[in-house]
Design brief:
Number of strands of chain A: 11
CATH topology of the largest domain in chain A: Peroxisomal Thiolase, Chain A, domain 1
Oligomer: homodimer
Strand content of chain A: 15-25%
Radius of gyration of chain A: 19 Å
Structural class of chain A: alpha/beta
GO biological process, one term (chains A, B): isoprenoid biosynthetic process
Order of helices and strands of chain A: EHEHHEHEHHHHHEEEHEHEHHHHEE
Protein name (chains A, B): 3-ketoacyl-CoA thiolase
InterPro entries (chains A, B): Thiolase, Thiolase-like, Thiolase_C_2, Thiolase_N
CATH architecture of the largest domain in chain A: 3-Layer(aba) Sandwich
CATH superfamily of the largest domain in chain A: Thiolase/Chalcone synthase
Largest sheet of chain A: 9 strands, mixed
Number of domains of chain A: 2
GO molecular function (chains A, B): acyltransferase activity, transferring groups other than amino-acyl groups
Number of helices of chain A: 15
Helix content of chain A: 25-40%
Distance between the termini of chain A: 15 Å
CATH class of the largest domain in chain A: Alpha Beta
Shape of chain A: globular
Strand order of the largest sheet of chain A: 3-2-4-7-1-8-11-10-9
Keywords (chains A, B): Isoprene biosynthesis
C-alpha cells in the first residue's frame, strides 16, 4: 500500500496573539502551503482541528472560512474536535482521507484562540468536557493531575523533584524553539517554590493557556516523491478511549488510551517501543510525561521518573522527549497542540529542526484528550 | 476494493425532546447497535456528528461521553462538525475510517439538542457560521433563501405556488414517518397564506428547529455478509465547498458545492444522475430542493420546479424526493440531519421503509452546510 507522507508543515508563533482564530489558521495554512510548494487549488481535503471556536469566539463554520481565506475552494472541509487531542484526531482524519483514496492532497490546520478569555472562562470551557459527576463537584483536569501525581509519587517511591525536572528539561528545550510561548530556562528551585495549584503540583508543573496554529500537508508517498525529497511518512497511527469517568479506572497511574492507541500504532508500523528515537508527549501537566513514557512502553511502569532523573529523555539522551519544549514551554492552543507535535517530529525526521535537531529516523507523537479520555498516537519514519 | 456497507441504522423521535444531547445520542446509538446486531465492544471507531453542543448546552467532549454511555471503550472517537452538514461529513468520516482500513466496524451517531433555547438564540448560533460581512449586517440564512427564491422565480419564470408544493409534498410524505416532527398534511393555501418570513418565502417554506439523533453502523462489505443479508453499500461519496461569502457566487441559483460534491460521487460510483431512483435532499428551505435537484443533474437548470408541479418527485413519481418528509416535516436537528438522510435511503434500499417504501436500488443523499458553503453527497446501492 502507498504510505501516507507529510510534505510540508508550519506553525505560527504560539503565545498571546492579537489575531482571531480565522487569522491564526490562515497564517499557518498559507505557511504550510509555501513550505510544501503546493498551491491552494491542489488541496482536495482541508481539515481543521479546533475544540471550541464557538465557545471562545462565537464563531462557527471556521473550516469554510479557512477554505475561503486560503482560496482552496472547492476543497472539502470539516472540523475535527476531540477536546485537547483535536490535533491528533485531525492527523488521524487527514491520514484516513489519503489512505482511503478520497484525497490525494490533504491539508490539516489546527488552532485555538483562547487568551482573550479569562483563565476562569477558558477553564470552564475545558472543564465541560469531563463527566458531570466530576466537574459539578469541582474536580477539574488540574485536580486530577494533582491527585494522580500524589498517587504516582507514593506508589513508585518517586521524589517530588523528578516532576520538577520535567519542567526544567522542557523549558530548556523550548529556548531553541522560535515558535514557543516561553523561551526561558527555569531552575529546579523556581519550579519547586512556585505557587501550589493542585498539591503536590505547582504553577510550573502546568502548561499555559495559549493562542496558536499549526498546519501539515499530507499526500500518498507516490505523490510526495513528485514534490520533494524531504518528506516523512506515517507508518502507524491509532486512537483509543479510556473511561469517561476517571475514578472508574482500575489504576489511575495507567492511561488506557495511551496503551491501546499505541498498540494499534505499533502493530501497524511493525515497530516496538524500543525502535522510537524521538517523541513528543502531551505534557499538559508534568506528571503526564511520566505516565505516557511508561504506557507507551518506553520505560517500565513506575520508572519513567528515573529516565528523567538520569537524563535519558534530554535532547542529548538516548530517547529525547519533547525536543520542541512540549506543551509546557511551547504552549497548548488546544486544537493546534497535536498538530504541532507532528510538526516537531516531521522537522526532526527531515533534519530541519535547527538547534533542536537530534539523530532520529523514527519518531512518535502522543496527543491526549481530557485526562486520557481519548488519545491518538502517531508513529512517523523518515523516508 | 471491498466496498463500505451499512448494516444497521436508527433514528430517534425528532421534535421537541425532554432529553439532553448525551441522552439523544445514546438512544440512537443503542438502537443502531441492536438493529445491526453488533455489540458495543465490536465498535472500533465511533464518530459523533454535532455542530454545537458546547454553544447549545455548555457540554463538550460528547464523543467520549457517548463511548462511555454505550460501553464502547476503547473505541476511538471524534466529533465531526460541518455546521448543518455535520451529518454528511460524519458519513464521509465513517466511510473513510472503513475504506482506509483503520476500522472494520464504525458507528456514526449524529445529533443536536436545540429546542430548549429560544429561536433567536438558536438562530444566533447558526448565523455565526456565515461570513462576518453577512451576519453583522443581518443577512442570515433565511434572508439568503428569500433572496435566492425571488431570483429563481424571476429568472426561470416559475410560479410562487411551485415552492409551496414542495412543502405540501414533503408534509404528505412525513405523515408516514413515525419519527417525523410534523406528521400532518398541509394544503397549498395554508402554505401560501402563512406569515411572511423572508419574502417571497413564508413560514411553511422553512424547516423547524428540532431535537433528535440518528445512527448508522458501517463495515467492509466482506464483514457485512457475516452479519446480514440486508445491507446497502456506499458506492460514491464526495464533498466540496463553495464561496464562504454568498454574494461572490457568479450565479446564486447554482450551488457549486452540490455540483462539485456530486461529480466526485458520481464518478466514484460510475453512475449518472439518471441512475438515481430515490433521493433525500436538504430542504431546509423549499427553494433548496429545486436548486439541488438541478445541480445534482436530475433536471435541467431552471426546471426543477416543473418536476414538482408534474408530480415527478412525489412518492409514486419517477424520482421520489424526500420520502422521509425531508427536513421540512421530519425536522432538522443539525448534526442528525445528514445521518437521517442516509438512514432513509438505507431503509428504502433494504426494503424496510414501511408505508414510505418505493421501488429503488440506487439512492442519493445531499447534505448542505450553511447556504451551500460545504456539501456532502452520498450515493448508495442495494447489495
Amino acid at each position: 500500500m502507498d504510505r501516507v507522507a507529510i510534505i510540508g508543515a508550519s506553525m505560527t508563533q504560539f503565545g498571546q496573539r492579537d489575531a482571531w482564530i480565522r487569522e491564526l489558521l490562515a497564517e499557518a495554512g498559507q505557511a504550510a502551503l509555501a513550505d510544501a510548494d503546493v498551491s491552494p487549488d491542489e488541496i482536495e481535503h482541508l481539515y481543521v482541528s479546533n475544540m471550541a471556536s464557538g465557545e471562545f469566539e462565537g464563531q462557527t463554520g471556521v473550516p469554510n472560512a479557512l477554505a475561503h481565506d486560503l482560496a482552496a475552494m472547492p476543497a472539502y472541509t470539516a472540523r475535527i474536535d476531540q477536546t485537547s487531542s483535536s490535533g491528533g484526531a485531525g492527523v488521524y482524519a487527514a491520514w484516513q482521507s489519503v489512505a482511503s483514496g478520497a484525497s490525494d492532497m490533504t491539508m490539516l490546520v489546527g488552532g485555538e484562540k483562547m487568551t482573550h478569555r479569562s483563565t476562569a472562562e477558558s477553564t470552564d470551557v475545558i472543564a465541560s468536557l469531563t463527566h458531570p459527576v466530576e466537574y459539578k463537584h469541582g474536580v477539574t483536569l488540574p485536580s486530577f493531575a494533582g491527585l494522580t501525581a500524589r498517587l504516582y509519587l507514593d506508589t513508585y517511591d518517586a521524589p517530588r523533584e523528578s516532576l520538577g525536572k520535567v519542567a526544567v528539561k522542557n523549558h530548556k528545550n523550548g529556548v531553541d524553539n522560535p515558535h514557543a510561548q516561553f523561551r526561558k530556562e527555569v531552575d529546579l528551585d523556581t519550579v519547586l517554590d512556585s505557587p501550589v495549584v493542585a498539591d503536590p503540583l505547582r504553577l510550573y508543573d502546568f502548561c499555559p493557556i495559549t493562542d496558536g496554529s499549526a498546519a501539515l500537508v499530507f499526500c500518498p508517498e507516490s505523490v510526495a516523491r513528485e514534490y520533494t525529497d524531504d518528506y516523512a511518512v506515517i507508518s502507524g497511527i491509532g486512537g483509543a478511549t479510556d473511561t469517561h469517568v476517571v475514578h472508574e479506572r482500575a489504576d489511575p497511574t495507567t492511561m488506557g488510551g495511551v496503551v491501546n492507541s499505541s498498540e494499534i500504532a505499533y502493530e501497524m508500523a511493525d515497530l516496538e517501543p524500543d525502535d522510537i528515537e524521538v517523541a513528543e508527549l502531551h505534557d499538559m501537566f508534568t506528571i503526564l510525561e511520566f505516565l505516557q513514557s511508561e504506557d507507551l512502553g518506553f520505560f517500565e511502569k513506575g520508572e519513567g521518573w528515573k529516565a528523567v532523573e538520569e537524563g535519558v529523555t534530554d535532547r542529548d539522551g538516548d530517547l529525547p522527549i519533547n525536543t520542541s519544549g512540549g506543551l509546557k514551554s511551547k504552549g497548548h492552543p488546544l486544537g493546534a497542540s497535536g498538530v504541532a507535535q507532528v510538526y516537531e517530529i516531521y522537522k526532526q525526521l527531515i533534519g530541519d529542526a535547527g538547534k533542536r535537531q537530534v539523530d532520529a529516523d523514527v519518531g512518535l507523537a502522543c496527543n491526549v484528550g481530557g485526562f486520557g479520555n481519548c488519545v491518538t498516537t502517531t508513529i512517523m519514519e523518515s523516508r
